[in-house]
Amino acid sequence: MTGSWRRLVFANPNVPPGLVDKAAYSFCVLEHLHRSLRRRDVFAKDGDRWGDPRARPLAGEKWTAAEPEVLTALGLESEPAGHLAELASALHAAYVQVAAGQHGAEGSGREVEAGQARQGEGAQAHAAVPAAGQRHCCWRSPS
Question: Which of 66, 79, 95, 104 is deepest in the core (most CB within 10 A)?
Fold first, then answer.
């Protein structure tokens, strides 16, 4: 229970000391439940909107029947190769941009040691930029 709700639930001047404000507590619980539903931390059993999407995956004939409608709704093609290539290209461009910014920051006070970025005196982070199509990017400490 957060501080603002704690004050409303336990310190309501209209409720005798030692008792809780039932209405405030109910709203507190509802607010936290709604937040958890939106974050997908909690699911409503068999719910369409708030249900667990992993609980009822489509397979076999059901997926075959629903596939065109699902792909159209998501704006995707049946073959994911083109979409994945676009995402890989965008990710590679982002890596290149970050690496260029890091290399151009002489004396910025940044350093990477044992895979952890941190501030250091006059240090610079060096990035190993992957070629397009590679799956990872490594950060290494200056030698």
Answer: 95
Q: Rounded CA gap, 9 and 26, in Å?
A: 9
Neighbour count for residue 27 (Cβ, 10 Å) = 14
Could you read off the pLDDT of 12-27 as tens digits, one per residue?
888 888 888 899 999 9
What number of other Cβ atoms are within 10 A of residue 28's Cβ? 19
pTM of full prediction above 0.70: no
CA distance 132 to 33: 43
DSSP codes, 92-105: HHHHHHHHHHHHT-
Determine contact, residues 125/110, Cβ cutoff 8 Å. yes
